[in-house]
Amino acid sequence: MSNDLESYDTKSTYASASAEYAVAAEEFWGFISDDTVAQLGLRPGQRVLDFCCGPGPMTIRMAQRVGAAGSVEGVDILDEMLGITRRRIRERGLDQVTVRRGDIDALPPGDESYDVVNCSLGIYFARDMARSLASFWSYVRPGGTLAVTTIGRRLFEPVLPIFFEACRAERPGMGTFLPWVRTEDPDVLRTLFEEAGVTGAAITTQDTPMPLRTPESWWPIVHASGLRRLEAELDTANETRVRKACEEWIAEHGVTELNVGTVRAIAVKAEAAGGGELPQSTASGGESHGH
Predict the structure, then answer these.
(1) Which of 190 and 1 is assigned the larger pLDDT?
(2) pTM of this structure
(3) Radius of gyration of the chain, Cα coordinates, nearest whole angstrom
(4) Residues with Cβ < 8 Å from 240, sequence gap 6 or more?
(5) Neighbouring-strand partners of residue 149
(6) Domain ranges of the chain
(7) How many alpha carbons lie under 13 Å from residue 7 in its C-beta half-sphere?
(8) Could you read off the pLDDT of 217-237 as tens digits, one per residue?
(9) What's 5-155+179-210+260-268's CATH class?
(10) Which of 70, 72, 217, 281 has its CA 20 to 30 A from that of 168?
């Protein structure tokens, strides 16, 4: 498992891409949020904690499911992302949502008070992923659910390998590490859950085609995703040639869709022996890492 996380500046990459990422989260891969919410079976009145909420695609969908009687707390490390989420929840009148800044590398122990704890497209930014997963689990009530979704293998194929090749042609030796490769293998995610003490997780994988309407549609995907970190290493002339090489290859090969693979783990915490009243305190002071 690659763990070259120090080579990837998460904060600057996603802070600069926050507005574009918010659009991409719906236009390009909003189906990931839709699929996750559908599998969680959320009910009105439930209490939800959404780590790595980014611009709020999951936060908003979960709030709509739990309704005004429920509550959703979104947490992210980037103020830029949180600002977008706050604006979006205001526009939708979702008063049951609160958001705050936080870091999944520095979570205090949870109080087992949330019905659902979710982390979509973010766990691979944690320095110690097993430790962060254990922290997530501590917020889940007995009988509650933890859901973690990551990027799977073959992301943006068949074009991504061509993009890498074009980048290295311009910048020989250029590193092309991307954080999500740390968890693209479902066996890796399964092992991390076991190391975190989270038992019985159901791991599923899915490949979903994403339309690529024109060759020119590729670059907005680069600009609005974690690939932006590689784009930032190119000067204007480099970028122009890389973009042209990708667009010409797409046109020549008639590519009209890209693969978006996901790996999802869902675990349900065993009910407490003898039942009893669940704690009601909040996870105040905790932090979470952004996309």
Answers:
(1) 190
(2) 0.84
(3) 19
(4) none
(5) 120, 264
(6) 5-155+179-210+260-268
(7) 11
(8) 999 889 888 888 888 889 999
(9) alpha beta
(10) 217
